[in-house]
Hints:
The protein is an alpha+beta fold. The chain has helices at residues 5-14, 28-38, 65-75, 148-156, and strands at residues 23-25, 42-46, 59-62, 79-80, 83-84, 88-92, 101-107, 112-118, 130-133. Strands 1-6-2-3 form a 4-stranded antiparallel beta sheet, covered by helices on one side. Strands 7-8-9 form a 3-stranded antiparallel beta sheet. A two-stranded antiparallel sheet has the order 4-5.
Amino acid sequence: MKIHEYQAKEILRRYGIPVQPGRVATTPAEAEAAAREFGVPVVVKAQVYVGGRGKAGGVKFGQTPEQTREVASAILGMDIKGLTVQKVLITPAIDIAEEYYVGIVLDRASQAPVVMVSAADPRRARPRLHRIRRHPGRDQPPRAHQGRPSARRRRQAPD
Length: 159
């Protein structure tokens, strides 16, 4: 299943996980209104089902509401890896202290979900992933220590 960033944030928010506020815009005027609502600066992010949006020019900053309108106008309709951008996500620009990448995939062999977490951008480097497996028939959530051995090895491994 593929979902947009704004849809993923809605799901996380529904389950009480704090996420950065954002507003979806389909027109430059809506993007400008969102920038006024959040205050500036903001980030304008193309919503397409592919990675590499930033490298393709689909993630830009708006320093003023007017500049946000211009940036959204440039991104909306843009082609990113064969997909046309029809929506942008407007979020307040923030300083990022740490960034983690999380994915959930189905392990076909065990028929169980696998949660993968990495501090490295999986599109730019071959990340060392910390896997936490949970058997679908069990009621117990993964234990906190299940990812620790990998994290310990990661700290000790020479780069």
